[in-house]
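Incident review: delayed structure delivery

Summary: a single-chain prediction request sat in the queue longer than the usual turnaround. Root cause was a stuck worker, restarted by the on-call engineer. No data loss occurred. The affected request and its eventual output are reproduced below so the record is complete for anyone auditing the incident later.

Affected input:
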Amino acid sequence: MLKRFLIAALLSLALPALDASAQTEGRRATAVVELYTSQGCSQCPRANRLLGQFARQDDVLALTFPVGIWDYLGWTDTFARPEFSRRQSAFSEALRERRRTPQLIFNGARPVSTSSWDDARAALDAERARGLQGPAINLVRARNGRARATINAAAHVGAADVWFVEYDTDTVTVLISRGVNTNRSIPHTNLVRRIERIGAWDGSAVSFERPRCRPSCAIFVQAPEGGPILAAAFLERR
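Output delivered after worker restart:
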């Protein structure tokens, strides 16, 4: 009897530790698609729907970055953030491409117009076939909600930035009451809530940990100053 009691007691102590170590594995992306969009432009709702189609691909990290470039037309974008506009501007300078909205950026290196869905789909197919050429990333969410990422060692010259993104995988719809999209309901797929630079990668193995992955999160390695994205992984709440 005493022996059974001791075994049960030991198991009760071990179970919380096992529970805390449980984790959810993320997926590595073959392509990263960023849509810069605004609730105040007439072409953006259509672009938002296109990104929604891209997000259905299991190996594609498709993200919506709202910007306020069209706010002067009578409606202030409810999700735009200054850091999103700065990111788009960095791409424009690096790619020597005029900043326009809506705009798709593939893997941080290929700007594509949303006016032709066929061209945009062809660009995505080409980027997926080529794949990201950087290091392997392992991204996990622990049972306590913390996000842990390990970037493996790989040949690389110079330092690259490491970015952490939190986004919402549920479709977020906004009813517009002013401006060119008055009375239209605009959907947002994989709406980015926050993006931050959390460190650097110089070719050696490195690990990062964030206090949360809520509701979904991603991490990617990117050349500085709006350069190409080298590798990415994401972990979505399903």
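Verification: Residues 1-20 have pLDDT under 50 and may be disordered.
Action items: add queue-age alerting; document worker restart procedure.
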